[in-house]
Amino acid sequence: MFQALCKILLTALLATVLVASAAAQSPESSGEAEVALQGYYFGTNSQTVTDTTGAAVSLQQFVPNVGILSLNLQDYGSRDGFQSGENTVRLKDYSLLGRHWDFSGGDLRVQSRRIETTFSNIFTPEITFRGASIDVKRNDTAMGFFLGAETLQEGPRLPLRVRAPQNVIGATLDQRLDRLQLAFRVVRFSATGDSDLSDAFLQQRQFKSVNTIAGQALYSITKNFKFYAESSLATNRVNLDGNQVKSSPFSWTVGPAWETERVTLRANYVRQTSGFLPVAGYYGGDREGPFVEARYRLTSRIDLYGSANRYTNNLDNSATQDRFRSSNWSVGASANLPSRFNANGQLSFLRLTTTPASTQFTDTSRNRLLNVSLNRPLGRHNLRVALLDLNLNSAIQKQQQRSTEVEDTVTWKHFIVGGAVRFQNESSTENRSSVFFRAMGQVNFNRLTAYANLEKGNDLVNRSVFTTNSFSSTNFGVGAPLFHGWRLQADAFRNQLITNLNPENIFLLGNQGVGVPTRLGGLNQWSAYFRISKHFNWGAPVSIGGLDKYALDHNPLVGVVEGFVYEELLDGQRPAAGIPVTVDGLRSSLTDANGHYRITDVPQGARTVAFNDRELPADFEPATHGSLKTTVTPRGVTRVELSVRPLTHLSGQITAPPDVPLENILIRLLPSDRYTTPDSDGTFNFYNLREGDYELAVDDSTLPEGTYLSSGQRIALQVRIAKDLPSIEFLLNNKTVEKPIQRTFQQRIELTPSTHKPQQGGTHKGTRGPAKSKTRSRKP
What we know:
The protein is mainly β. 4% of the residues lie in helices and 61% in strands. It contains 3 helices and 49 strands. The longest helix has 22 residues, at 2-23.
């Protein structure tokens, strides 16, 4: 074992040094690794201890212009010799011929279901094998080819891989077309030499060689409504107990799925023959029937759900196979009740009919399961009560099991402590009761974690009229940091099972005398596991998304984006020279005299082609389609045409008498909402002006007091890039003020001569002397 461990560590160290040194020359290289020493030990009171100790190394290194080199080693030594886990070497995302290539060797996995669905009743095992594979990716298309010998997993804690008596070779094709996803799979399974496959499949099936071809499709009719379809063809003859039986060749599955936040409804019909996917060690076929499930959110607090199915098997109608028919339906609800209560309940019914091979006997079992739970947080406590009622009714035996479990979990700062007690009762040929206890504890301090679990009680299911079984199990573990970034994870488990005579049966004890041993047997199992590991990083820092995204960003498949940029004029278009065009703001190019640009080494995928606003000349602005979305294909040329609007400016002058302030005069550019004011010398400007017909207008309310526009208030203009603008001038003059004028108004009074002479010695009444003039002046 020591030699095997040394071999493992030396191999891992050598691989790490080679990969790291190959990539250390580039500043863009980046890598990560995890090294772990681990072991698992298992023993009983009657067996020799089984020990498995080894190392696990996982390494990834990004090499610019090459891709991601990854290495995974899991090898162990034990008393039985050298044992291996998953050992893989892979070159990922290598760019060649406009595609990304993945080359892999070692212990590999291939997903046989190429399209993910939300149907819960479809199980398709993955294909695990020891061999080689090649995967090619480009845009929304992926192809793969693989071959090797199938493997199965072995070991409770350390994943060991063991050979299965079956070889596999196959190819896959995945294609995404907008709303439609398509996938195809071609696989050939064949037995290894003259291997006996009776232990690899259920009911003595032996698939010596099977060729399968399958197609899968998922169409998104709307955002919430999808339709799934799958069909496969298998060409094979199944060996059943030495007899060659021709299997039904066609398998298919169809069904819709409607999923919204409030309503979910899924339904399908499944027909999978025995040759559907005969992977050694799994059972992926021989059933037919409908399936439906639904969920409805009645309110924001209540969810209702249910499902139903009906299946039959033995689609080949073989007399040497057992026949099963089942129908199952269940309903349930979950609710958030007032006072922070949460309740969940489910009722299920299962009817199973079994007809053993080569017999006419039929056993029908009608089973019912009721499961109800109620929990509520109370301070630091979380209380839970669960009820279970199980009825098993068949022609052979009727049985009822009931259990009530009460649990409390307390959380306080770094500590979690909990316990539960379950009361069980079983009614069958006899009535039995038992009590089951469970306790747990956990403590968390920064990176230190420790936990323990204890279970103790009577095993009600395995208890019989002759014996009683009691067991106790203890499990505890710790996760703690060590030194220099190393971390320890360890746990231990012990299970003790004691089988005693049932004291209720006096006929077993009668006439035996004193000192009869009541213990029939015991089993004491224990196991221990440890793992010491450390994670390493080197090279350039990796952003969010991990090393895979970092590799795609720095080693992508590339294409070319090119096109023309035109000036949009009122009189037509003309090429725009010296315009900077960019893709995603990263790669840019200037247009030539013909308005042409070309940007190379553009990563594949959805891209945005736009102008570089920071470098765009000030006398241009983007047109309405100044940025466009496009898709770049590897080694392809994508054409994108853009346009700009040329801008100009106009200048004018306000001429006024000396000492007239001009800075507050408002000049408007109609029909736009732009305005400006002149400088102290009367000059004004409008910049970044598009072509068009405009009118300059001076706001009368902003003219200085005592002035007026002698040139008119408005000037009409036609702004064109190819034409010079006429001189623009507004004339501002002072108003003429009339000086005050003094006028004299004369009023003359004349007396008409009288015909009578005055008397001598006095005057005549009413007679006036000679006329006199009076003057009076006033300002107008």
